Amino acid sequence: MPISFNPPTISPNDIWGAVLNNILIALRDFGNSIERAVPTWRLTPSGGDDTNAIQTAINAAAAATGGTVHLGKGTFLISAQLTIPATVHVTGDSRSTTTVLQTGPNVAIFRLNDGYNSLRNMSLRYQTAQTSGQENGCAVLLHDAFATILDQLHIINSQTGVSLARTEAATFMASCSVTNIEVNGFSGYGMDLTSAASISTGSIFYNIYIHNNPAGTPLMAFSGLRMTAHSDAFMAVINVEHSQMSGPPVVFSTVENLTVSGLHLEQITPVQNYNAFVAVYGVGSTVAIHGLTIVFCHLLTANIPDLFALIKIDNGVQLEVHGLSQRDFTVQSGFTIPLIFGSADLTTARVWLQNLRTTSTTSDFEPLTADPRIFHNDRFPQIFLGNPGSTPGRLYMESGALKYKSPAGTITTVAPN
Q: Is 399 within a domain?
């Protein structure tokens, strides 16, 4: 719709008013010229298979060197993957009124190629819940995503909600914006941001809600969020909830300068090889988490390995956690939870911890102990207590004892050998 604007009446002596008036007129004309330059294809559900109609509109927009495909209110049935190339934008009416329903098994709903494209404002649903073995049942598949935008999407019954095409060579993700995404009902990953390229860089992830109870009962999955081979990414308001998981709910692997502001894990039950709530892998990985909350989780010793902790790290990892709250766990009697552990030599790992808080009444939280599950061959990362950049105290292992060295140099044995 063209922009409507009527210039105000201005006194001849009002020089600055005249300047402002000319600017507003120019902005109006510029906006209308953009609207005329970017065509829009509008579709409504046919009641039958809409695959060809949607893909034809997308192809027409691509042939016009860019455009928008608008999917109106209602449910669009598709039976094959829809591919969005560069410069094409697909949007629904809203995530509560526009649904794209995939009737085909083990196939993506949308694939976005080559960047400068977007997908917004709709619900993406599989007619039948995708099993863990249906790895192609990914609702949104990204390939060579540069400046791609995903916003206001609700994804239901997928194997993986959003994924990079990690099995294809050199797939990367750079300068993308992934915001306001809800994934509910998945058997693989809520989001799998595993890059096949050497590194993906500079993307933003905001207000991501990953949960796994579409019918009210938590389902089994691999992991909520996995990010591999990324640098300089920023995440904020990330929630992983209501699921049984066979791997850590959150995994960061080979990541450089990742900042996470607000990471919330709730009502998660670990099984099988699950050995931590948050795992940071890869020599050189640097992660800063500002606000980590883990609440109402269920731990049974029959379900998980003996080596279990809130956080698992590899050697060479640098991890900052500013504000960690753990509370209201259901824990089998006699089982304790170390704060952090690694299953290899950790002599070059560095961990900053600040503002730890637990309100558990079951003595299930051991932030700083000599529990043997935390350590490996008496080699443990230096844990700094204080603000980065300041002169901190640190925890370290010496001859099997856990010791603390204050900023003044005073050494205290926290836990003897």
A: no
Q: Which residue range(s) make up the domain with 249?
A: 39-390
Residue 52's SS3 state is helix
The Cβ of residue 13 has, within 10 Å, a number of other Cβ atoms equal to 7
Count CA within 13 A, CB hemisphere, residue 187. 16
Tokens of 13: 């002596």
pLDDT at position 216 is 84
Is the pTM higher than 0.70? The answer reads yes
Q: 100 pairs with which residues across the strands?
A: 76, 124
Question: Does 68 lie in the same domain as 16?
Answer: no
Contact 366/337 with Cβ under 8 angstroms?
yes
Positions in the chain short of pLDDT 70: 1-37, 170, 198, 273, 300-307, 332-338, 341-347, 358-402, 404, 407, 414-417
Task: Give 92-123 pLDDT, tens digit per residue.
Answer: 999 999 999 999 989 999 999 999 999 999 99
- CA distance readout (Å), 280 to 191, 248, 250, 326, 366: 16, 10, 9, 18, 20
Measured in Å, how far apart are the chain's first and last C-alpha atoms?
75
- Amino acid occupying residue 369: T
Rounded to whole angstroms, the Cα distance separating 43 from 415 reads 68
Residue 408 lies in a domain: no
**Domain count for the chain:** 2
**Quick one: tokens of 107?**
């196939």
19 and 103 share one domain: no
Instruction: Give, as one character, the DSSP assignment of residue 197.
Output: S
Q: 63 is written with which tokens? A: 């042939």
Is there a single domain that holds both residue 88 and residue 7? no
pLDDT at residue number 409: 76
Structure tokens at 43: 């579709």
At 37 the three-state DSSP class reads helix
Q: Assess whether 13 and 62 both reside in one domain.
A: no
Residue 267 is predicted with a pLDDT of: 93
Is the domain of 189 the same as that of 309?
Answer: yes
pLDDT of residue 11: 52
Q: Output the domain CATH number for residue 173.
A: 2.160.20.10
Residues 114 and 32 in one domain: no
Question: CA-to-CA distance for 83 and 356, rounded, in angstroms?
Answer: 46
